[in-house]
Amino acid sequence: MEKTNTASFHLFSLLLQWLQIAACVFLLNACVNNHEHSPNEHGHKHAEKEDLVKHPEIDSLYLDMTAINQTVDFHKPLEKPIWQSGKGASHMKDEDTVIGIEVEDQAYALPWWILKNHHVANLTLGEQAVVVTLCEMCGSGSAFKAVVGGKKMNFREHGIYKGTWFMRDQETDSFWLPFEGKAFYGALKDSALTHIDTYQIAWKDWGEENPNTMVLYDSQSKREGHGAREYLGYDRIAPIYRGTLPDSIGTDLPMFDIVLGVGSEGVYKAYSMKDLDAEGKVLQDTLSDGSTVVVFHKPNTTMAGAFVPIIEGQSVSFMVDNQGDIRDEQTNSRWNYFGECVEGKLQGTQLSSHFFIVKEWYGWYGYHPSTDVFERR
Q1: Is 199 exposed, middle or buried, given 0-12, 13-18 or 19+ CB atoms closer than 10 A?
Q2: What letter does residue 78 receive in the DSSP assignment?
């Protein structure tokens, strides 16, 4: 009897071990499957082939059927914003990346962690219709006056193209490049929106430069979910997005380097943020068509803007004085990072802007494969 009991005990122990192993395997598979379909991963819904349809007329363009059906929150544009004064905005953290713009002399900050849940914001700021766009994966954000032919336009995310998403307008169903503001397909093809100077920077730095800014508000829960893991300079790209880029990305810079892209109409140049840090607050340069550019950059941040250094037909040169202020050499007036003279003979003067945008290198190259790249002397 004792031998029988011992044998039964060993059999029971063996069965228990097998059950434990099976349970572990089941849990492991569940974790893997959950990881593959987690909304925090780059694939999101985009990685599921049944949600993508290749466009018959445009190479490397995919329509996202989920976006078309508007069944996922992060495909729905932001259209009812809640704004708060930036002073004492308790929902913000110093390190939060924001898209900063100024419209009708009022500064606004749109946090990544809010806008990532929409990608597109259709706004009215003062009397101006504005569209703001964000791709948190490729580190791109931009803003435009949302008016074509005197008519207000509304936009939404629509599919994948050139390493990022693209948008369509809801009035004509034309397709638009979301960070260039240009229509590339449909009734409004070749139309262009007016660009609004756009900065991507930490909330603390934006607030220091714009103490009266307004900031977008939302629940802290919106920090989680879709896009929560991405940040400016994130070093991964989903395969479906990579498949819409050129076969080879220019090797002038590392693929995920953050750059300031400058230029228009076939004349483009990229400035690595690392090079801008090394150059300091002011960089004066020349584009391939001979036009001049001055870049104002807050060192060790991603705040940078590109301006035309000409006032009333006269070239102006800039330097940094012993106190660290940006000044023009002609009148010794003081300037801020936004190309505005804030003190001196030229106070109130605003430099004209070149088109500029902060992006990761692959995203800039995907739009502009013929781009020049700044090289430090």
Answers
A1: buried
A2: B
CA distance 317 to 336: 14
Q: How many residues does the chain have?
A: 377
Helices and strands: H and E segment counts in the chain: 7, 30
Task: Extract the tokens encoding 353.
Answer: 């802007």
Residue 73: per-residue pLDDT: 78
Task: For the full predicted model, state whether its pTM sits above 0.70.
Answer: yes
3 state SS of 56: coil
Cβ atoms of 299 and 281 closer than 8 Å? yes
Which residues are CB-contacts of 102 (< 8 A; sequence separation ≥ 6)?
108, 196, 197, 210, 338
Q: What is the DSSP string of 287-300?
A: -TTS-EEEEEE-TT
Across the chain, mean pLDDT equals 89
User: Nearest to residue 206, comparing CAs of 344, 304, 306, 65?
Assistant: 304
Shortest CA distance to 284 belongs to which of 308, 300, 252? Answer: 308
Q: How confident is the model at residue 8 (pLDDT cuts 50, 70, 90)?
A: low
Quote the DSSP letter at residue 193.
P
Cα 311 → chain centroid: 31
In this structure, the dihedral spanned by the alpha carbons of residues 63, 66, 69 and 74, taken in order and rounded to 10 degrees, is -110
CA 105, CA 240: separation in Å to the nearest integer? Answer: 40
